[in-house]
Structure prediction request, 493 residues.
Amino acid sequence: MEDTSKHTEIWAVGGGKGGTGKSFITSSMGTCLALKGQKTLLLDADLGGANLHNFFGLITPKLSLTDFFEKRAMLQDLIVHTGIANLELITGSTGSLDSESINYAQKQKLFRHIRSLEADKILIDLGGGTHINTLDTFLLADKMIVVTAPEITAIENMYQFVKSVYYRKLKSIFKSYDLNTVVQDIWKNRTAHNIRNLKDLIGYLKQGSDRIHDIFNLEMSGFVVHIILNEVRSPKDILIGENLKRACVNFLGLQVVYSGYASYDEAVHKSINNKEAFMLFNRLSPVIKEIRQLTENIETETCFSAPEDILDGRIP
Amino acid sequence: MEEYHDYLELLELSQDSTPADICRRYRYLKNLYSGDSIEIRALNNDFSEEIRADFLLRLDDAFKKLNELSEKSRDGATRPRTDQDDELRLWLTQIDCFTGSILRSIRERMKVELKTVFAATRIQTHFLEDIEGEVFESFPAEVYLRSYLIEYARFLSLDTQRVLNDYLPRYRGRAAK
Prediction:
């Protein structure tokens, strides 16, 4: 069960919209992994409003990422224990009002140091929005996870988020092959090339030349986004994840897997307000089982498969 | 045969899909992309009316071609047409109890022979006859009957849960006597 190799796997959790339960899902998945015996570190990278520590009843840690950025502390010094075996936490900056001023060098330094932390899994909780720092941190991950909810606003923002991430990745890859301006130029002149959306752009790039085609296949084939649907209220909602996957594949041209869902449960709300670790105290909640399942699905790269009767539309 | 794979790919199905799989997936996708669900509306410009119309056209085409191809290769084992005419559909909504004889009428009105049902569901024709004739002695255990009913109802594009709810009490009532 335990990963014996030294390799640290980074999971990043984003999703574009705030309030969809990114932090809840991250902390719960982390707890799940830790309980299975994997050394897990949660990194709260919501630089504007870090509050992952609340999910474990911790008081705001003394040191945060701000201290790291301002060179007052090493990244390792920021680690606090959550009270759960194998589970540790680094908090983002809570007090800072200028969270977007992190510069490129600071960001690079953070990414370097994250890789050197000792853990089996590092789970990064990102804030909402599609700020460039958020996108870059997301792209750092070995497993990219988006959390969304069955609401049109959350879904719209999720589409926007995955598209932005993908576009950013495209640009950075072509840049590394000294083709910096290719993607941007094509996109700027998109009407001339008859490109309506991201999917057309991808198609255009693939046809462009053999070299671009090869680069694309080499670099982008591993680009897979995992979808988690939170606050599911009906069997029909479960299907939304499946439909989102189809929509992303067919109309955005992205590789997406539906990893699982978590039901809406009043117990989650209570547990957050009581500052308790949800996974430890709510054995009767279906959400526990659902989170265990989706965590395992992400670990093993398995797709959640919606029950046949829901797919057939036999449940209203 | 290559185009056969392309059509299957459009329906996001693997090569070993049965005609029943194809039919179900087609109905699901058609419903999803012609509908007004939030996950589709949220795509906005990425799924304009133009793209939608184009996609639905290709979907319909793929389904039609797949049916034609499987008719050819499967020696007459055709699926009932999913675009049942409105009269039949109306009649189906008026059925208040799915008895054996009703199932037979549905099948006959869809112009499907028992051996065709067998080809798709692998239920022996004598069992199908006994389901339609309500010869309950042929089913000593309910589980077998139940699974046959599910397959058969699916084949006829019926609401499986409703068929089970109507049919199984009749079986239990007879068995109790």
In short: The beta strands of chain A are 9-14, 40-44, 80-81, 87-90, 121-125, 143-148, 224-232, 255-263. The interface with chain B takes residues 150-152, 155-156, 158-159, 163, 196-199, 240, 243-244, 246-247, 249-252, 309, 311-314 of chain A (CB under 8 Å). Residues 168-218 of chain A form one domain. Residues 1-5 of chain A have pLDDT under 50 and may be disordered.
